[in-house]
Amino acid sequence: MASHFAHIDTTIHPEDEMFLSAVKALPSVGLAKAVYLRQGFEINSTLQAVLDWVAHPDKSSAKVLDFACGYGRSTRFLVAEIPAANVWVSDIDEAAVEFQKAEFAVNGFVSSYEPRDVVCGERFDLIFVASLFTHLPRYRFEQWLRRLLGLLKDKGVLAISVHDSALSNGRPMPSDGFLFVPESESRSLDVNEYGSTYVSEAYVSGAVRSLFGGEVAYRRLPLALCGSHDMYLLSRRSVEEFDSFEFANPPVGYVDWFSLSEEGVFRIGGWAADHDPANEITSIRVFFDGIVVGEVKTGYEREDVAASLGVEGARFSGWDFWKKGVDREADGGKVVEVVVTSSSGRTTTLHSSEVRDASLPTLPVPQERVAWLAGSS
């Protein structure tokens, strides 16, 4: 079974909330696993871009803390890039920390609601926080900024993801640019401590200034995490050093259908786009067990994607691929993967699962196609 994720430990803990939410939303466990792994891959892609800059020219000896790590959605990809001995994980869920220590051979310590109660004797080159500040009330947001900055080496970088104020779903933003709503998808955490948070850049810059004076600089990376969260990098490095960091957002997209008919027609499709209107999707390749079986381009109209991304160039971001002669029994164990490449040079693995995970949904009627959109026969 060849796969772009063949070197990744894909073991998922049965209590992983991120995985369980995907299982609830999708028609099969296999498809839920595909979405879960794709998200982990995307998170790690951004982490690696930051780490390559922070620890240039050799990241192999860098100490990295994956904070609010959950059950390892992205850590499994991180330990394939740097030695597990240099990776620390931390979460408020002790079972999540213990699972990662046993499964991925990383170091770990249990977190707390109270930042001052966290005990950690290490200092890190990079602390990466993929989804915590998107959920914190204001006083916790600022407490955690201070506590985590205190765990960095002199030139270390704290990278946090946030929901920008533009994502507040029509809710009015307070004048200070900080909105906390006591609701979340978590089944176990107090919504007053872990809700939904939206912030403006004016708020973040003001908080950094009031907490640290001129000692800490920051850099905002719009939509740098999974195409939906902004990333902020904070450090005692100079503003000029931050300006030297070149970052291109990876392409984004989604598989909306993944089917295999009784007649043996396999079909997969969805959308792919780049947030930067100066870039375009140059390639969408479909693999069966590591072998390219087809290459398509975008071209179907997806007005919903253009509206969601706020990028008019994404209006024709839809793509569709089909292949005849696929047998559910004989081909069921083959791994289907979709790899998207942008003119920025960045790529992303949009999908990875077995043929047997294909369901039989009601599919959209194919739009009129031009020759270069044709799938494999």
Could you please describe the fold and organization of this structure?
- The chain is α/β, with parallel strands linked by helices and 377 residues long.
- It has eight helices and 16 strands.
- The chain has helices at 17-25, 29-54, 75-78, 94-104, 138-149, 201-212, 239-243, 303-309; strands spanning 64-67, 87-91, 107-110, 124-129, 152-162, 178-181, 196-199, 217-225, 229-235, 252-260, 266-273, 281-288, 291-296, 318-323, 335-342, 347-354.
- The strands form four sheets. Strands 3-2-1-4-5-9-8 form a seven-stranded mixed β-sheet, with helices on both faces. A four-stranded antiparallel β-sheet has the order 13-12-15-16. Strands 10-11-14 form a three-stranded antiparallel β-sheet, with no helix packed on it.
- A hairpin with a 2-residue loop joins strand 12 and strand 13 (291-296).
- It is globular.
- The model is unreliable at 368-377 (pLDDT under 50).
- Tell me the number of helical segments per DSSP (H or I, 4 or more residues long): 8
Structural class, by secondary structure, is: alpha/beta
Query: Rg from C-alpha positions?
Result: 21 Å
Order of helices and strands: HHEHEHEEHEEEHEEHEEEEHEEE
Low-confidence stretches: 368-377
Outline: globular
Give the helix level as a range of percent.
10-25%
Strand content: 25-35%
Q: Kindly report how far apart the N and C termini lie.
A: 23 Å
**Mean pLDDT, rounded to whole units?**
91
* Strand order of the biggest β-sheet: 3-2-1-4-5-9-8
User: Strand count, sense and closure of the main sheet?
Assistant: 7 strands, mixed
User: How many E strands?
Assistant: 16
